C-alpha cells in the first residue's frame, strides 16, 4: 500500500465546471414548481356568485324576534317565557297564508345557544322564510 503525499498533480488548475450544485438547484426548483402549479390552476371552471348587499325593508307582516345579551327572547316587544311558548306562537304564524317572514335580531354578544333555540322553535313550527337582521357596514 502506497500513499502519495505532496505530488505535483495536486497543484494543477482544475478547468472543469462542477455541475453538481447546478443540478441540485434545478431539481429543487422543479419540485417547487410541480407542487405549486396545480394549486394555482384548477381544472373545473365554475362561475362563482357575486356578493350583493340588498337593502331590505321591513314589512308590517314580518315577524320580528329579538334576543338580548342575557338570552331573553322577545316577540316584537313582548317578552317570551321560554322556547315552548315561542313555538306555540310561531305555529299561529305558520298557519297564515301567505306565510310571513321571520326576522331574528340577535345581540352580537349573546350566546349562540339562545339564537339556536329561536331557530329551532321557528323550524319546528314549520316557517320556511327566516332571516337575520344585522347592522350595515
Describe the structure.
The model has no long low-confidence stretch (mean pLDDT 79). This protein starts with 19 loop residues before the first helix and ends in a 5-residue tail after the last strand. The protein contains 3 helices and 5 strands. Helix 2 runs parallel beside helix 3. Helix content is 34%, strand content 14%. Strands 3-2-1-4-5 form a 5-stranded mixed β-sheet, with helices on one face. By secondary structure, it is an alpha/beta fold. The chain has a domain of 70 residues: 2-Layer Sandwich (Nucleotidyltransferase, domain 5).
List the helices and strands and how they pair.
Blueprint: H1 20-40, E1 63-67, E2 73-75, E3 78-80, H2 83-94, E4 102-106, H3 112-125, E5 130-132
Parallel strand pairs: 1-4, 4-5
Antiparallel strand pairs: 1-2, 2-3
Helix pairs in contact: 2-3
Question: Which keywords apply here?
Answer:
14% strand; Nucleotidyltransferase, domain 5; alpha/beta; single chain; 5-stranded mixed sheet; 34% helix; 5 strands; 137 residues
TL;DR of this structure?
With about 140 residues, the protein is an alpha/beta fold. Helix content is about 35%, strand content about 15%. The chain has a 5-stranded mixed beta sheet, covered by helices on one side.
